[in-house]
Amino acid sequence: MNIEELYQELIIDHGSSPRNCCALANATGSAEGFNPLCGDKVKVYLKIQNSTIEQASFTGNGCAISTASASLMTEALLGKTTTEALSLATHFKNNLTQPVQAGSEAPSLGKLEAFSGVREFPARVKCATLAWHTLQAAIKHETTVVCTENIRVELEPGNSENAEEIQQEEVI
Amino acid sequence: MQNKLTLVRNQFPILRQTAHGKCLAYLDSAATTQKPQCVIDSLNYYYSTTNANIHRGVYQLSETATAAFEKSRHTVQRFINAKSAAECIFVKSSTEAINLVAQSYGARFVQTGDEILISAMEHHSNIVPWQMLCERQGAILKVIPMNDRGELILDNIEQYFSTKTKLLAITHASNALGTINPIADIIKRAHAHNIPVLVDGAQSAAHMPIDVQALDCDFFCFSSHKIYGPTGVGVLYGKAKWLEQMPPYQGGGEMILQVSFEKTTYNELPYKFEAGTPAIAEVIGLGRALEFVTELGWDWISQHETELLHYATEKLALIPGIKIIGTAPEKVGVISFTLDNIHPHDIGSIVDQEGVAIRTGHHCAMPVMDFFKLPGTARASIGIYNTPEDIDQLVQSLERVKQVFYGKRKVQAV
Known about the structure:
The structure holds two protein chains of two kinds.
Chain A: H1 3-6, H2 9-16, E1 29-35, E2 40-49, E3 52-61, H3 64-77, H4 82-97, H5 125-154, H6 160-171
Antiparallel strand pairs in A: 1-2, 2-3
Chain B: H1 2-10, E1 18-19, E2 22-23, E3 25-26, H2 37-50, H3 60-80, E4 88-91, H4 94-109, E5 115-119, H5 128-137, E6 140-144, E7 165-171, H6 183-191, E8 197-200, H7 212-215, E9 219-223, E10 234-238, H8 240-243, E11 256-259, E12 264-266, H9 280-296, H10 298-317, E13 322-325, E14 334-339, H11 344-353, E15 356-357, E16 359-361, H12 366-371, E17 377-381, H13 388-413
Parallel strand pairs in B: 3-15, 5-6, 5-7, 7-8, 8-9
Antiparallel strand pairs in B: 1-2, 4-10, 9-10, 11-12, 13-14, 14-17, 16-17
Helix pairs in contact in B: 2-9, 3-9, 4-5, 10-13, 11-13
């Protein structure tokens, strides 16, 4: 396999000049990811309003593959609902790790197709998926927080017992 | 010289293969060395002709296996010039050797408030066992610092010694930087304060003669697989005066004289520390590897590796954007480097496609990377079989890295 198929133009571009590479001051959720095998670190920030991702950014350091993956991820997330984002994360990861099924019509990953070459480099799969695992953690945490806030707004002040019950149901 | 190198290379069958259609330039001997045919043959021969459990059977096969196993111990003794073969304990790795001392010596000699001294350039295996010991015993871990060249700051090493310092555990040569520490001097100064010294020889034993009596170190450890021997075996040398006072590390067969449900009497050295059936074939293979190295001779090995280290250092320094991490004057054949801001993993993947095997990452020495404020480095390391052509291949492959990264950026700018 040609190394250029791994290091596609888009990956080199986003790896060298990552977009949305900053902390998000008004983030409603964030999570940290760490690959202890290589030391790559990433922190993903999300601003979610009404279950829709309005802003996404990341900080951290890693190789071109992991940086480009985080950068392109933050672009791809804009305007997506959290459910759509989680589904995209699963789809992205499967695309790198699951065998290609002939005739299957998976939805296009758009720009993220640039990472298809990673499947031929098993040692680099974790680099490409680190940001997406972190995203899932950030959303799951975010879901809980958003639910809690929504519920609190709807309930009478001081009625914390009910709030806890409802919150638990929502989490489940 | 060149002819001898060719003869040496021919002993290593793995080097004949290609990687991604290119000649294999194996430059990761600091991680593990390749094995010469004689070592591979010794494993085959053992399993084909000699295999039996040792030290117990009264039949001929077991006696032959025991003799071959113990012959290896004597080879180790001669190799490091230990006073007695009983001071040479077979363990599974340098890591296990250090853990053995941390647990056993630690249990016997380290109390609450005592101190263990290590250095800033240790491999995780010479940090974590001591942290665990300190946590268990309520002791304190202290660290000798280093400078920007990757040399320990030893001018006033005595400031780190105290009456509470129960052990100095220090690497002979750094796996991440290549630095060779002046351990003879360090040991002398520690001993002047009655501090015993453990030397981690994982990165030195394959590159220079070791004389534990001349060094006067209290413990010395090295791994078989880093000195052209099989994996799964390491050696712990310890002065008998310490080993005799230390409790067993693990309980089981082999390490006992007599067992009843009331009391167990422990075996003598070295068996007290060798519970369970050891890696017999691999120990015998290690013996063969040490003979192989001895037959080659330190004069040739030192000259060859030093020349290659200098050649590689000069060649790499000519590449714009290369920064060598670890520039001590005394080094083993380890060259850690960065290339502009390109992450070491990207370097590793791209040079791999050019047939070059190097290590990338933190090299199990995260504190060293933190010191240099780097996420990791690319590391080329040299063994007896490497050639100037291997270095040239590395240099060319690094040009390829730049091409992959910058070729496209220029295209994009247009």
